[in-house]
Design a protein that fits this description.
Order of helices and strands: EHEHHEEEHHEHEHHEH
Number of domains: 2
Number of helices: 9
Largest sheet: 5 strands, parallel
Helix content: 40-55%
Distance between the termini: 13 Å
Shape: globular
Strand order of the largest sheet: 2-6-1-7-8
Structural class: alpha/beta
CATH architecture of the largest domain: 3-Layer(aba) Sandwich
Length: 231
């Protein structure tokens, strides 16, 4: 175990509930939770604010290095939220413009290399649950726990559909499914650090499991190992 505990790395495709599950696990264990996707969206937002050309890879990578990055606990004291030049960006990065461009920004090797180093520094002392799409295979290949969450595309589309409807938004299940499939393909075919399954990761198929049940399964695994180590 590291100074503050274990590193719990969570990987998997879009729509499996990594963020919700990761937050529950972190809260139960007294850890911090990091959603690495926020970092890519935050960089995209800043680039758009500065009216930079998203297609200019060299300039986007330079911007990543120029920004003063900060990560501070949110009101729940669990989730580390992203700050850009001292400004919290959680509300900004939900903008549709950001969502439309963040995949391109995240595909740049220089950007991924920069954030990999940043993510490792955040988790080096442990006591963290970190989720993303290359966390188990590239960022933390030495994590004490590697979890790969999965679910059928139909189930993931259904969950997203109900989430949108509950929020009072229009939703089309077929279009949601198509969008998820497109995103999966993009993640799998990404040239640098594509989505893949680490050989020593624990696969949890949540198609027929609630997110609460998945979280409890992970928590039991961690506590069992922690208790063995304290004896």
């Amino acid at each position: 175990m590291r100074k503050k505990g274990f590193v719990i790395a969570m990987d998997g495709p879009a729509g499996v509930g990594k963020s919700t599950i990761g937050q529950w696990v972190a809260k139960s264990l007294g850890y911090h939770f990091v959603n690495t996707g926020e970092m890519y969206r935050a960089l995209t937002w800043k680039a758009l604010e500065k009216k930079l050309d998203i297609g200019d890879e060299k300039r986007i990578v330079a911007l990543a290095h120029e920004i003063d990055w900060g990560f501070h606990p949110s009101s729940d004291e669990v989730t580390l939220k992203t700050f850009v030049d001292g400004e919290p960006v959680s509300s900004h990065i939900r903008d549709e413009r950001v969502g439309a461009s963040s995949s391109q920004v995240a595909s740049y090797p220089g950007v991924r290399k920069f954030f990999c180093k940043l993510q490792r520094s955040l988790g080096k002392n442990g006591g963290v649950v970190m989720e993303g799409r290359d966390i188990t295979t590239h960022v933390f290949p030495d994590a004490e726990f590697k979890i790969y969450l999965d679910a059928s595309v139909e189930e993931r589309a259904k969950r997203r559909y109900h989430q949108l409807k509950a929020a009072g938004q229009e939703a089309n299940w077929r279009k949601i499914k198509e969008a998820i499939l497109k995103r999966d393909l993009g993640d799998l075919k990404r040239k640098i650090n594509p989505l893949s399954f680490a050989k020593d990761a624990v696969l949890i198929d949540s198609t027929h499991m609630s997110r609460r049940a998945v979280a409890q399964k992970i928590i039991k695994m961690v506590r069992r190992r922690r208790d063995r180590g304290s004896k």
